[in-house]
Structures are given as structure tokens and as C-alpha cells.
Fold this sequence. Notes:
Structural class: alpha/beta
Radius of gyration: 17 Å
Number of domains: 1
CATH class: Alpha Beta
Strand content: 15-25%
Distance between the termini: 9 Å
Shape: globular
CATH architecture: 3-Layer(aba) Sandwich
Mean pLDDT: 97
Largest sheet: 11 strands, mixed
Number of helices: 8
Low-confidence stretches: none
Order of helices and strands: EHHEEEEHEEHEHEHHHEE
Amino acid sequence: MALVFTAIAAHTPVLIPSIGKAGIELVEKTVTAMERLEQNLYLAQPDVIIVISPHGDSLPDAFTMNMTGRYVSNFEEFGDLVTKVEWKPAMMLMDRLREDFKKTDFKMVMTSAENLDYGTAVPLYYLTRHIPAVKVIPITPSSKLDLKTHYDFGKKMKEEIMASTSRIAIIASADLSHRAGEKSPEGMSAEGIAFDEKIQEILRERNPIGVLDINDAWLDEAGTCSGRALAMMFGILDGVQHEVEILSYEKPFGVGYLVASVRVS
Length: 265
């Protein structure tokens, strides 16, 4: 089977030591969970990691895939001018995806940016420490298309993955509700708390299609950036036997940080 691993990873830049500094202690549970997730991913020995990040170049009516000769982390917007990590693209698989999706109803647009968005770079910073040769495909959800469309896109992506000879891991880069606690700068919302609980329920019950219980109004009220990325990941898991381990959940700043490891059977 080409799909060997799936995960949800937090992407707050506070996780980068040079950015979080002393404040990184406030996300200690998440740091520890990301380190455990790295170990789990290492055991799966992927050839390719597809990272689904909501913070890439997002279009209202299309999905985007960043296709360039190399990728570099860039945290300068957070005051870190030093941390630089490089990754190589999975060019052959991207070529196939580009051509195959032309035959579908899904619109996929190619972008080309060496500097990765932080939603992609933060998880990769943690997860590729012991697999530096792994190749990467960054994908960004649409900013407007509904969750059902993203779920169906994930199902189509699963077909492509299963047809590949590479060992492929999927990472949904996903901070959850930005209104999940009293310290949220956007104000706490009951819908934000309920959103985070719903995502964890879907994982525990291994019920990917449950994400379609969430509508756009709920996403907006929860103030989450990652609902569409999660819908894509759950679409990939549709019909796939898997086991879930929720490694951590915390919200020290009022934003839900979830780390979950999904082992494909």
C-alpha cells in the first residue's frame, strides 16, 4: 500500500525554539507530541510527505500545488533570520498529479515558491529531522470551496496515492479553533470549543465522513484556518483501515493545538 502514514500536526511558529524562546514552555505538551509524531513517522519510512497547509497560496475556486526545484523554510516574518532547512520536491509524483487532475472536475493550479509558508515549514522542521532525504509535496486547499468538495478532492488524491509505488505520508497542518479558550485574542466561542471536540471525536471514532457535519457558518464562528485541510485529509482516509492516537491537545493561547498520529493498516 502506498499510503503508509497520516497525521495532524500543529503549526504555530511558537514551536520553533528561536521564535517561541521562553514562551515555548507554554506549548510543552505540543512540542513533546510533535517529537513523538516524528518518531512514528520515521518508523513508517515514507519516501514522500504531502503537506496540506492552509497558509500557502490559496485561491477561492481551486487547489494549489507548489512545484519548484527546492523548498526552504523561511521564518523571517517572525523575527527568525537564522533557521533554514531545505527539502527536495517529489517531482515525478507531482507531474503525475498535475496531469491526472486535468482529467477531473477539480481545478488544480501550480505555483512556484522556494520559501515555504509556515504552515508547511513548521511541521516539516519537526518531522523530517531523521529522514532528511524525504521528498515533499506542498498542497494548499481552496479558500472558499466547501468541505464536501475538499473531502471529495481527498478521495481522488487517495486514488492517486494508492496507484503510486512510493511510500507516502499525509500531514494535515492544522491549528484548530482560534476561539477555543479565554485567552483567545478573537474571543472565546462555544462553537470554537465544539469544533475542537468534533475533530477529536471524528478521530476517536475513526469516522472521517463526520467532518461533513461541519458547515461554513460553524467554521467561521470557530475561527479556524484548517477546516478545509482537515476535510482533505479525512477524504484521503475514507475507506482506509486506520488506527488513531491523539498525542496531545492544549490551548494555552486560546487556540486549539492538536497533534494526532494515524497509523494506516
